């Protein structure tokens, strides 16, 4: 393996074809691991440690590079059938398609007319719009394998609602540890029914939901307090009722004959 990696200037300066700096770094890392053989097989964790970034970001960027055709992936399995790290075949950096207006700069010399457009692209560059591949990569990272049917469902969901809704639904399913498409779809349908499409709308809705149990508890406490403070006439009625019950019990006790009286009555009957 060479102690260095040759990278053309236009690849380093390209701010259009790569969706993010993580994606560019991961592409260059794969090229570094591939070397002359053209094949690389670092694990997701190895790539994440080298970038550095999270494994979810690694999977999203790999899916984007695969969709663009910049890399090819071949799954590997051990003799027991368990999956090991994938093999990635990287297109040589020199085969990258140049952008219109790209010129081969003199080695070690930076042209003044090249610097300004590059800086302008950097300052005006925004995150690229989310693609179906990034959603599929997130689904595989958080929920499980995306079969062709699930990919079709995700594509339909993208046309029906927004990227923020699908991401939120996947995160909710993972947080609840219910890693099934049916749960994700139920969350998407609920948000769609409430016409929540943006991340800000979802955030406000979740904040209101979090406040509901607190309000219910406060309402119960207020009802309990109001029940504890009773009008004076209620207490008067209770006192009169207790006195009436006491007099009734006393009258009933007085009407019961004593043992002497019972003996006399029995003697008369005999």
Summarize the structure in short.
The chain is mostly helical and 270 residues long. It has helices spanning 9-13, 21-34, 44-50, 55-68, 112-124, 132-142, 148-160, 163-175, 181-193, 199-228, 232-255, 259-269, and strands at 39-40, 71-74, 87-90. The protein contains twelve helices and three strands.
What does this 3D model show about the protein?
The structure is a single chain. With 270 residues, this protein is mainly α. Among the domains are: 1-93, Arc Repressor Mutant, subunit A (Orthogonal Bundle); 135-227, Orthogonal Bundle (Arc Repressor Mutant, subunit A). 62% of the residues lie in helices and 4% in strands. The chain has twelve helices and three strands; from the N terminus they run ααβααββαααααααα. The protein has helices at residues 9-13, 21-34, 44-50, 55-68, 112-124, 132-142, 148-160, 163-175, 181-193, 199-228, 232-255, 259-269; strands at residues 39-40, 71-74, 87-90. It has a three-stranded antiparallel β-sheet. Helix 6 packs parallel to helix 8 (163-175). It starts with 8 loop residues before the first helix and ends with a helix. The model is unreliable at 93-130 (pLDDT under 50).
């Amino acid at each position: 393996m060479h102690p260095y990696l040759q990278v053309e200037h236009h690849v380093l300066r390209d701010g259009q074809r790569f969706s993010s700096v993580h994606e560019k770094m991961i592409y260059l890392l794969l090229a570094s691991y591939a070397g002359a053989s053209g094949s690389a097989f670092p694990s997701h964790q190895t790539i994440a440690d080298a970038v550095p970034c999270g494994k979810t970001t690694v999977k999203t960027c790999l899916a984007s590079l695969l969709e663009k055709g910049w890399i090819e992936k071949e799954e590997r399995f051990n003799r027991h059938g368990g999956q090991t790290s994938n093999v990635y075949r990287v297109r040589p950096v020199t085969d990258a398609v140049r952008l219109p207006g790209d010129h081969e700069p003199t080695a070690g010399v930076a042209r003044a007319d090249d610097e300004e457009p590059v800086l302008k692209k950097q300052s005006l560059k925004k995150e690229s719009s989310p693609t179906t591949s990034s959603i599929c990569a997130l689904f595989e990272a958080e929920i499980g394998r995306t079969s062709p049917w699930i990919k079709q469902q995700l594509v339909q969901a993208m046309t029906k609602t927004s990227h923020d809704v699908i991401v939120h639904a996947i995160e909710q399913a993972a947080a609840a540890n219910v890693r099934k498409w049916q749960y994700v779809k139920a969350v998407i349908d609920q948000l769609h029914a409430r016409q929540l499409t943006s991340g800000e709308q979802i955030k406000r809705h979740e904040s209101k939901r979090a406040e509901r149990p607190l309000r219910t508890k406060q309402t119960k406490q207020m009802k309990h307090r109001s029940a504890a403070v009773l009008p004076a006439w209620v207490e008067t009625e209770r006192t009169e009722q207790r006195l009436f019950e006491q007099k009734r019990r006393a009258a009933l006790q007085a009407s019961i004959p004593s043992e002497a009286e019972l003996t006399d009555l029995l003697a008369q009957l005999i």
